[in-house]
From TrEMBL:
Cited function: Involved in the gluconeogenesis. Catalyzes stereospecifically the conversion of dihydroxyacetone phosphate (DHAP) to D-glyceraldehyde-3-phosphate (G3P).
Enzyme's top EC category: isomerase
Self-association state and partner proteins as the record states: Homotetramer; dimer of dimers.
Full protein name: Triosephosphate isomerase
Biochemical pathway: Carbohydrate degradation; glycolysis; D-glyceraldehyde 3-phosphate from glycerone phosphate: step 1/1; Carbohydrate biosynthesis; gluconeogenesis
Cellular compartments annotated: Cytoplasm
Residues the record marks as active site: 93 (electrophile), 141 (proton acceptor)
Organism: Methanolobus tindarius DSM 2278
Recorded coiled-coil stretches: none
Transmembrane is among the record's keywords: no
Length: 222
C-alpha cells in the first residue's frame, strides 16, 4: 500500500438499512486491492458495525462527541464507535462544525481510544489552527466547493498548498488531505501534486451511476 489515503464520506446520501453502504464499501475495497491505495469509508453511525463487519477496509465515523461512559444521552460515544469497528473519525466536518474547544476535546477523546483523527478545515488559517491540536490528518475543504463537482485542486489550489505549508510549519507530523468537488483521476493527481497525501470526497463517487467505475477513474492517474 502507498501512503496515499482516500476517504469516502457517505454523508446521508444512502437510505435503507445499510446494504447501500456495504455495497459502496465493497467497491472501495476492491479498488483499493487493485490499485494499492488505502481507501476508507465513513458511513452513518448506525451503519459502522454492518460495514466494518462485512467489508475488510478502514471505516471512519463521520464525527464523535467528547463524552465518556455514563449519563450522556444522544451522543456519539467513542467506545461504541470503536467497538462497532471504526478505526478513525472525521472531526469538524463543514456540515458538522464544532467549537475550537470541542475539536480539541474530540481529538483527545479519539486519540485516547486509539482512533485516527481527520480534522476538517475550511481555509489556511483553520488548517494551521487544527494542526496545532495534533490530529493525524487535516482535511481542507472550501465549503463553497463541497458537492459542486468543481475540484478544489483546480478551483483553489492555493488553499491546498497554503494548508500544506502552514501545517508543515506548525506540526510536521500532521498530514494534509484535501476535498470538495473531487471525483476524477486528474483531481486526485493534482491534489497529490499540490502536496496533500490524499483526498476526502463524497458526491462524485456516492452519487455516481456505478461507484466502482467512478473509483477506478479516481485512482487511474496515480
Ligand atoms: O466529506 C467530503 C467532502 O465534504 C467533499 O464532498 P464532495 O466530494 O461531495 O464535494
Amino acid at each position: 500500500m502507498s501512503s496515499t489515503l482516500i476517504v469516502l464520506n457517505l454523508k446521508t446520501y444512502l437510505e435503507g438499512t445499510g446494504e447501500g453502504a456495504v455495497k459502496v464499501a465493497q467497491a472501495c475495497k476492491e479498488v483499493a486491492d487493485e490499485c494499492g491505495i488505502e481507501i476508507g469509508v465513513a458511513p452513518q453511525f448506525c451503519d459502522i458495525y454492518r460495514v466494518a463487519s462485512q467489508v475488510d477496509l478502514p471505516v471512519y465515523s463521520q464525527s464523535l462527541d467528547p463524552v465518556g461512559a455514563g449519563s450522556f444521552t444522544g451522543h456519539a460515544f467513542v467506545q461504541s464507535i470503536k467497538d462497532a469497528g471504526a478505526v478513525g473519525t472525521l472531526i469538524n466536518h463543514s456540515e458538522c462544525r464544532l467549537t475550537l474547544a470541542n475539536i480539541d476535546a474530540s481529538i483527545t477523546t479519539a486519540r485516547d481510544a486509539a482512533l485516527k483523527t481527520i480534522v476538517c478545515t475550511n481555509n489556511v488559517a483553520t488548517s494551521a489552527a487544527a494542526a496545532a491540536l495534533g490530529p493525524d490528518y487535516v482535511a481542507v475543504e472550501p465549503p463553497e466547493l463541497i458537492g459542486s463537482g468543481i475540484p478544489v485542486s483546480k478551483a483553489d489550489p492555493g488553499v491546498v498548498t497554503g494548508s500544506v505549508d502552514a501545517v508543515k510549519r506548525i506540526n510536521p507530523a500532521v498530514q494534509v488531505l484535501c476535498g470538495a468537488g473531487i471525483s476524477k483521476g486528474e483531481d486526485l493527481a493534482a491534489a497529490l501534486e499540490l502536496g496533500s497525501v490524499g483526498v476526502l470526497l463524497a458526491s462524485g463517487i456516492v452519487k455516481a451511476a456505478d461507484p466502482k467505475v467512478a473509483l477506478e477513474d479516481l485512482v487511474s492517474k496515480v
